[in-house]
Amino acid sequence: MGADIVRRVAEVCPLNTCVEIEGHRAHNGLVFADVDKEALCGEGIPLHMYRDHTDHLLTCESPTGGQMVQRVAAHRVVLQCLVEAYLPTFT
Asked: Do 18 and 26 contact (CB within 8 A), yes or no?
C-alpha cells in the first residue's frame, strides 16, 4: 500500500527521495524503519498502538516548510487511499 500512497501523494506534494531518511533506509519516499526495534525502545501513541493493538504501522509526514494547503492535501490523499483500501472490508 505504501508505494500506491507515495505515488498519489507525489501528485500534490514533493517527496523526499533520499536513500536514507533519519538514519533509515528509504526508497522513492518510503522509509523502511525497523519498527520492531523502534517499538521496543520508543514512546508515543504510534508505537504504543503498534505494540498493543495492531501488526502494522503507517506514519505520514509532510514537508515542514511546505504551504499548509499542500500539506493538508497530501494527508487527505493518504486518508483517501486508506479508505479505498479498507472500506470494502467493512461493508
From this structure: yes
